[in-house]
Design goal:
The protein has 321 residues and is mostly beta strands. The protein has a single domain, classed as 3 Solenoid (Pectate Lyase C-like). Helix content is 5%, strand content 37%.
Length: 321
């Protein structure tokens, strides 16, 4: 059993009764009781190209900020004290004018962008509050070895941009909700024991996997549900032709359409897209009417889809450490 405690600027980890202490380098609290009132200030205070991990503890509150973790900020561990009451939110969207009179695009609409490597985030809600106005990203991840645990991603279209060729990302026990293509991008990303909530008749994923990548989006033991009855939703469609998406041992709700997958009006994608399923359950899991160009994995192929194996890369990253 693993439990975390926070006290007087320290991050305490209790494992099987043994107490271990690591300094909480920075505490963020809106009421002024910490080192900083905003998360951006704490990130800016971390050493550039750090050679050790900086721990940032975030007190409950609604932090309205457009958060940037640039490429030169690395080895940062952000820990919210309460995922339900600790929210980073902003409301940019594609087409909205910025302060310089330029229109935002999908690529600049984020509430939070992570460009640095070795970023760990726990117990934080990230929200794009723009509403149903088109593309409006809550979190855009470009960095490598980025890990989220018990986080919430709240938005509508394009909620989570898992981007970056060669980027490896791990989402454990997270909540992700949106309307259209709300998990999209080119990263190799594993979603384990996550809850995926569709809020519109549309598409869950839009992978743009590079053809040289072995994996793209892999959903393991997830719950795929609608926000209300009567939804009609596809598991995915290919943003780029070699999109890779797999749902393995997931619970698929009745909102998942029998065809399962859509070609995005790209017939050529039917010979290149890599769409896989194995061992799913629930009313949306039947493969009887699935499109013929998706595939049921064998037991051996499904067994190989282990988070550690998928994400280890050439450097042996242990995503579960």
């Amino acid at each position: 059993m693993l439990r975390r405690f926070f006290h007087a600027g320290c991050f305490l980890l209790a494992v099987t009764g043994i107490l271990w202490s690591q300094p909480g380098d920075f505490i963020v609290a809106q009421d002024g009781s910490g080192h900083y009132r905003t998360l951006q200030e704490a990130i800016d205070a971390c050493r550039d190209y750090a050679e050790r991990t900086y721990v940032i503890v975030v007190k409950p509150g609604v932090y309205r900020e457009k958060l940037v973790i640039p490429a030169w900020k690395r080895r940062i561990h952000i820990i919210g004290e309460d995922v339900e009451r600790t929210t980073v939110t902003y409301d940019d969207y594609s087409g909205k004018m910025d302060s310089n009179g330029r229109k935002h695009s999908t690529f600049t609409s984020h509430t939070c962008i992570i460009e640095g490597n070795d970023i760990d985030i726990e117990n934080i809600t990230f929200e794009n509050s723009a509403g149903q106005v088109g593309q409006a990203v809550a979190v855009h991840v470009e960095g490598d070895r980025v890990r989220f645990r018990n986080c919430r991603f709240v938005g509508n279209q394009d909620t989570l941009f898992a981007s970056g060729d060669g980027s490896r990302q791990y989402y454990q026990a997270c909540h992700i909700e949106g309307t259209t293509d709300f998990i999209f991008g080119a990263a190799t990303a594993v979603f384990e024991r996550c809850t995926i909530v569709s809020k519109k008749n549309s598409y869950i994923t839009a992978a743009s996997t590079n053809p040289t990548q072995q994996y793209g989006f892999v959903f393991l033991d997830c719950k795929v549900v609608p926000d209300s009855a009567g939804r009609k939703v596809y598991l995915g469609r290919p943003w780029r032709l070699h999109a890779y998406t797999a749902f393995v041992r997931c619970e698929l709700g009745a909102h998942i359409l029998p065809a399962g997958w859509h070609n995005w009006s790209k017939p050529e994608a039917e010979t290149t897209a890599r769409y896989y399923e194995y061992g799913n359950t629930g009313p949306g899991a039947s493969r009887e009417q699935r499109v013929g160009w998706s595939k049921t994995l064998t037991q051996e192929e499904a067994k190989a889809l282990d988070p550690a194996a998928i994400l280890k890369g050439n450097d042996g990253w242990d995503c579960k450490r």
